[in-house]
Amino acid sequence: MKEELLHKLSSKSAPYTMDELAWLLEHIGDPDPEVRDELVYQSLTKGIIEAYFTIDQLRFLMAESRKRELLRARSVLTRSFTCLLYSNLLEVDGDVTTPFVGFLEADDRNFLFAAAISYLVDEKDWVGYDAKNGWIHAHAHGADFLVAAVVHPDFPTEKWTSIMTILKETFLNLPLRPTNGEEWRLARVLYLPIYQKRLEQELVVTWLASLNFPLVTPLDYQRYETFCSFLLDIYLQVNKENQLSKSLKIGIENFIQY
Description:
12 helices, 2 domains
């Protein structure tokens, strides 16, 4: 199976069978990074984003992954890389330029929106890179999943309050200082919707004004510094697009002087 899938990965037209998709799903969290990253992840991404899979095959991936509850798997690798699968499914479902736009059933789409929000709360593993297993990056992949949800045209705007709460809790409860850019991936959850006018900057300003980071222990300072790095990336990215409002600029600057 691996050899056939490797051949198809380099091919520009070979169709995939349902058995091959089932194998890819079975190995989505394979502990071997060459299998997981270079074969499974690349094959799933190519098949979804470049439309080598059919609509029925995308619906199969959605149905089977839900049935197997892959986001609740014991293996963090399975949970983490399922986030990337779901990111891709949401991306094409909301993209009018793809043949898969609107392919998700409403129940599946709402499941993905809810799962994207809850994943960052539920996931406790903060390992970025592991010498044996390669990139685990569960919170970075969870951030990618949440980004795919919040930029989707059908994402309900009333969910922003929950997202702000989850971001606050994520940073206030960090067990360590992330070292693999997780806070920058999380920053995309806010600045990409700001680009697309899906998130009002005043909502972010109000949220920032409500935050209070205790500064007592060394870990408290690491949490605060990580959050400041998160804010600085938002500041730089939104300013780069000439979209930074005066109130958000002042709000971030004031918070970092906290």
